[in-house]
């Protein structure tokens, strides 16, 4: 292995540097080495770079030498100074090649969270000053540099840094606002289920209720990518009020959730707290309007492993406010059935803080806005067993459009992290009234087609309908 610590055109004296295997000199004094490591040097090699290996794995002489460097290093290969390197014939035992020949892999050894795209993308690593070179160079690895991974790519007689996908830590940081929105959407659905159930089954006079909610999400907008599991609980209290030609349910609720988001080595532990006020008006003509307002706080702890094995972590907090509005009409099918077409709109508006990861990647605080529009239909039927007991199975089918056109600045570069698109929601559920004052319910939903697929979500809860 040949190692270079600083710029020095006379690091060693040789006519050829042969990168194959071992670490010896042949009978002509030419260096044979498996790895040529220039570290961060701007190194000029006034010798031929040679080996007899090929990139073709089907050949018996497949193999490679390794040129290793940091991302700020540069290697210039001038050859040994013969008059015509490109057309030289095999006239001597000393030099019978152009400035570079053979097969090589280029290894990037460093990793850092600092630096902009302009610092790395298409940066030249190697230049062979011989247009007739037939050497082939390919990537030995991917390196985490700033927000993206990079690898070596040959372009003619040069080798440059090719930008690849987001690093694991940048992917997690940019995915956090979308994952926060997923938690909030589950909470919105939980409040919505409570209000929907209050209109069906036995008479609901309001009271205390509690519900578990959870779900799994897969996000992919072509830039960010993640898998997320969410589990939470909501508790609420509400009351029934008659007035203005409507039956009203007015209440408040609190939600607490934990999320686990990951992709490759990236991991985010999420905590969420939300406070809700909500109401529903069910008019005599069977038109209803549901509404809610809320405040949410999200805390996210991020960790990942860099390409060089270094552990990186960081944390961020964000506050948000949101709203929900739903309107529809209950078509009664006899005394027990219903079909309810509805439309709804909801929005979450997040404001996060600036933060820096332990590897010096900087994330600017982001105002992340997400709107959801939904058109659907609910249908159900109530089976009454006695004056106090009833079972109401129900079905949901809806079209959903998420509008979340967002981007965030990482190390000064703007990167798309909005998740949006059209999706279809399908849901099944049931509500069982044990007595006039106590009921339980459960439902499950699937939502897929947009940038975020909700593989499943569930609500399991009960309500003690005590007049207050």
TrEMBL record:
<feature type="domain" description="Autotransporter">
    <location>
        <begin position="201"/>
        <end position="466"/>
    </location>
</feature>
<dbReference type="Pfam" id="PF03212">
    <property type="entry name" value="Pertactin"/>
</dbReference>
<dbReference type="InterPro" id="IPR004899">
    <property type="entry name" value="Pertactin_central"/>
</dbReference>
<dbReference type="InterPro" id="IPR006315">
    <property type="entry name" value="OM_autotransptr_brl_dom"/>
</dbReference>
<dbReference type="InterPro" id="IPR003991">
    <property type="entry name" value="Pertactin_virulence_factor"/>
</dbReference>
<dbReference type="Pfam" id="PF03797">
    <property type="entry name" value="Autotransporter"/>
</dbReference>
<dbReference type="InterPro" id="IPR051551">
    <property type="entry name" value="Autotransporter_adhesion"/>
</dbReference>
<dbReference type="InterPro" id="IPR036709">
    <property type="entry name" value="Autotransporte_beta_dom_sf"/>
</dbReference>
<dbReference type="InterPro" id="IPR011050">
    <property type="entry name" value="Pectin_lyase_fold/virulence"/>
</dbReference>
<keyword id="KW-0732">Signal</keyword>
<protein>
    <submittedName>
        <fullName>Autotransporter outer membrane beta-barrel domain-containing protein</fullName>
    </submittedName>
</protein>
<dbReference type="InterPro" id="IPR005546">
    <property type="entry name" value="Autotransporte_beta"/>
</dbReference>
<dbReference type="GO" id="GO:0019867">
    <property type="term" value="C:outer membrane"/>
</dbReference>
């Amino acid at each position: 292995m040949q190692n270079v610590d600083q710029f020095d055109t006379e690091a060693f004296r040789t006519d050829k540097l042969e990168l194959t295997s071992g670490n010896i000199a042949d009978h002509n004094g030419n260096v044979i080495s498996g790895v040529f490591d220039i570290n961060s040097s701007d190194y000029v090699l006034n010798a031929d770079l040679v080996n007899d290996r090929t990139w073709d794995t089907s050949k018996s002489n497949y193999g490679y030498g390794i040129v290793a460097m940091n991302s700020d290093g540069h290697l210039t290969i001038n050859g040994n100074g013969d008059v015509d390197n490109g057309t030289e014939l095999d006239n001597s035992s000393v030099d019978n090649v152009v400035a570079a020949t053979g097969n090589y892999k280029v290894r990037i050894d460093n990793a850092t969270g600092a630096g902009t795209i302009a610092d790395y993308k298409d940066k030249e690593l190697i230049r062979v000053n011989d247009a007739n070179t037939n050497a082939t160079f390919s990537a030995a690895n991917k390196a985490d540099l700033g927000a993206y991974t990079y690898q070596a790519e040959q372009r003619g007689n040069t080798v440059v840094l090719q930008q690849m996908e987001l690093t694991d830590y940048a992917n997690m940081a940019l995915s956090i606002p979308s994952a926060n929105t997923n938690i909030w959407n589950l909470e919105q659905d939980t409040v919505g289920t409570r209000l929907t159930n209050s209109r069906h089954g036995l008479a609901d006079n309001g009271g205390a209720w509690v519900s578990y909610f959870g779900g799994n999400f897969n996000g992919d907008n072509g830039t960010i990518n993640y898998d997320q599991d969410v589990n939470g609980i909501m508790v609420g209290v509400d009351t029934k009020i008659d007035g203005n030609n409507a039956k009203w349910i007015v209440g408040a609720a609190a939600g607490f959730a934990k999320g686990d988001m990951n992709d490759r080595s990236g991991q985010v532990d999420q905590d969420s707290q939300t406070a809700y006020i909500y109401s529903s008006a069910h008019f005599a003509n069977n038109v209803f309007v549901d509404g809610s307002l809320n405040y949410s706080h999200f805390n996210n702890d991020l960790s990942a492993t860099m390409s060089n094995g270094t552990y990186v972590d960081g944390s961020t907090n964000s506050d948000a406010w949101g709203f929900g509005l739903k309107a529809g009409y209950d078509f009664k099918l006899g005394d027990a059935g219903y079909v309810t077409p509805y439309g709804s709109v909801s929005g979450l508006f997040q404001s996060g803080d600036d933060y820096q990861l332990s590897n010096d990647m900087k994330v600017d605080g982001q105002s992340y806005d997400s709107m959801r529009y939904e058109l659907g239909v609910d249908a159900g039927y109530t089976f009454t067993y006695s004056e106090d007991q009833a079972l109401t199975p129900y079905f949901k089918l809806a079209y959903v459009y998420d509008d979340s056109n967002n981007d965030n600045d990482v190390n000064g570069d703007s990167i798309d992290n909005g998740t949006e698109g059209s999706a279809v929601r399908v849901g099944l559920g049931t509500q069982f009234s044990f007595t006039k004052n106590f009921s339980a319910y459960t439902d499950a939903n699937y939502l897929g087609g947009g940038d975020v697929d909700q593989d499943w979500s569930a609500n399991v809860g009960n309500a003690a309908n005590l007049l207050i």
